[in-house]
Structures are given as C-alpha cells and as structure tokens.
Amino acid sequence: MSKEIISVSRIPIIVTLNNEVKIEGELIRHLSPLTIKKIINILPINQLINNYQNKVIQIKVNLDIGVEKPKYRFKMGDIAFAPIANSIYIFLADYNNNQPLSHVGFIKIDTLDELAKTKAGDVLSIQRIL
C-alpha cells in the first residue's frame, strides 16, 4: 500500500512566475466545488498578472460561473475566484474585499515575497500536479 494518501478533495497545484519561481498550493474542492471543477477544466492557465499594491495578484480567466459560497475576508496565501472581474486572485496579505468572492484554495506563504516583487508584463502559470 502507498505511503502517500491521495485526496480527491485537495488538488495539488504549482504556481509559476515567469517560468522561474515555483510555489506549491492546493485547490480545495469543498470550498467551492462547482468553481473548482471549472478551474480544473481550464488548467493549465498562463496569463499576465496585475499586482495591486502588493496585496493582491490578479490573473484573468474565462469562466462562466457566479459566486459560490460568498466570502469577503481572505488571509495571506488564499486563492479566490472573482466572478465580476472573471479573475483568479492570490492574496499577498490579509484582505477585506468589498465584493463577494469564491474561496478556492491556498498557496504556501513561505514564498509569497517572490510574488510581491512582480511587475507589469510578468506571467503567472497555474497547473495541476499529477
């Protein structure tokens, strides 16, 4: 029997910045199951980023889904989907959002300082680890 237990509710991902910096994370199915299913179907994602005052990283995606299990407060390292902006957000600091978002997972916070150094033209990739 395998020493490693594989969970169907936790989907391991790798977030890559400019094909250099790699950060591990997870999409957690019970947080927003319908949204997670749609995100998994469009992986891998490769998009230009927007960095909002080193608090939030935003990448545009093409998902047709509304907010699921709305949440306004997020912690450093959380990943969320914003239906209004049709974007995935990665939070670099604790953040209170004025619009409801769907919480979908997290990334390991020990390497978040690398994401805070981003600038216009940087590319962020999200892919599933198989």
Describe it for me?
It is a single chain. With 130 residues, the protein is mainly β. It has a single domain (13-124), classed as Cyclophilin. Helices cover 12% and strands 48% of the residues. The protein has 2 helices and 9 strands. The chain has helices at 33-42, 112-116, and strands spanning 10-17, 21-28, 45-52, 56-60, 70-74, 78-82, 87-91, 95-107, 123-128. It has an 8-stranded antiparallel β-barrel. A hairpin with a 3-residue loop joins β1 and β2. The longest helix has 10 residues, at 33-42. The protein starts with 9 loop residues before the first strand and ends with a strand.
The number of domains is 1
Our estimate of the beta-strand percent is over 45%
List SSEs in N-to-C order: EEHEEEEEEHE
Strand order of the largest sheet: 1-2-8-6-7-4-3-9
Helix content: 10-25%
Number of strands: 9
Query: How widely separated are the two ends?
Result: 19 Å
Mean pLDDT score: 91
User: Given this structure, which CATH class is correct?
Assistant: Mainly Beta
Broad structural category: mainly beta
Number of helices: 2
What coarse outline follows from CA principal-axis ratios?
globular
Largest sheet: 8 strands, antiparallel, barrel
